[in-house]
Amino acid sequence: QVQLVQSGGGLVQAGDSLRLSCAASGRTFSSYAMGWFRRAPGKERELVAGISRSGDNAYYASSVQGRFTISRDNAKNTVYLQMNSLKPEDTAVYYCYGRHTWGQGTQVTVSS
Question: Which residue from 54, 64, 63, 51 is spatially nearest to 98, judged by alpha carbons?
Fold first, then answer.
């Protein structure tokens, strides 16, 4: 069974950058796509970015296009979310997802 362990996040100011990491257990990481979701207070969970098994293809929500970058290192069983030019509206709990498994979530708070 896959386990996903997240790291990163925290409190930053608008315009700052953060990188989230999500490490997967097991030997099959390269066989499944990965995604990052977020849930802001009072809002439904939304898909922020997704990446294919090989990392060749990525999807971004329009709200983060051009500011966030998803990547993966299959040798390290890790997917990343680089978040630049952060805005207060990016404040949310961020979750990685893959192989029907969720990470534990990590809080990102952006102050204005």
Answer: 51
